[in-house]
Design brief:
Globin-like, 70% helix, Globin domain-containing protein, metal-binding, oxygen transport, iron
């Protein structure tokens, strides 16, 4: 499975919208993720005891969401070379696995991404589908790294 050049371009164009407010979109994405998966708060010790409704005003939460969105932007830039984008994600797995973060946590967040971008990030149905293909194309890289 892979992305067509047109799909890569559509994702990159969509991410330009996201890039205009990385913090805002990152906060919304993480609120949706943590709202759907409240047990995953334990993987974020810097804000795990912050009430859900107070997360956006928490500096550690804001720092985390911004780091994730900035990294996502770097992956998006490299989607034309899936091996390079996949290698970036494998490096991210190396830093997360020792903290007992599993593929399941990544999957829960990445599964939300296409629909979130369609609802919040002005992605059309075709662009959301391209995001789905990107996620499906990149997950094997991550799974392979978790398996090591």
């Amino acid at each position: 499975m892979g992305l067509t050049p047109a799909q890569v371009a559509s994702i990159q164009k969509n991410f330009a919208t996201i890039n205009s407010d990385l913090q805002g979109y990152g906060n919304k994405l993480f609120l949706r993720y943590l709202g759907a998966n409240p047990g995953d708060m334990v993987f974020f010790p810097k804000f795990e005891n912050v009430a859900y409704n107070d997360l956006v005003s928490n500096s550690a939460f804001n720092a985390q969401t911004l780091v994730v969105m900035e990294f996502l932007g770097k992956v998006v830039v490299n989607l034309g070379d899936l091996n390079k984008a996949g290698a970036m994600l494998q490096e991210r797995v190396k830093t997360h696995k020792p903290r007992s973060i599993s593929m399941a946590q990544f999957e829960r967040l990445l599964d939300l991404l296409p629909r979130f971008l369609q609802e919040e990030g002005k992605a059309s149905g075709a662009v959301a589908d391209a995001w789905r293909v990107a996620v499906a194309s990149l997950m094997p890289f991550m799974r392979a790294q978790f398996a090591k």
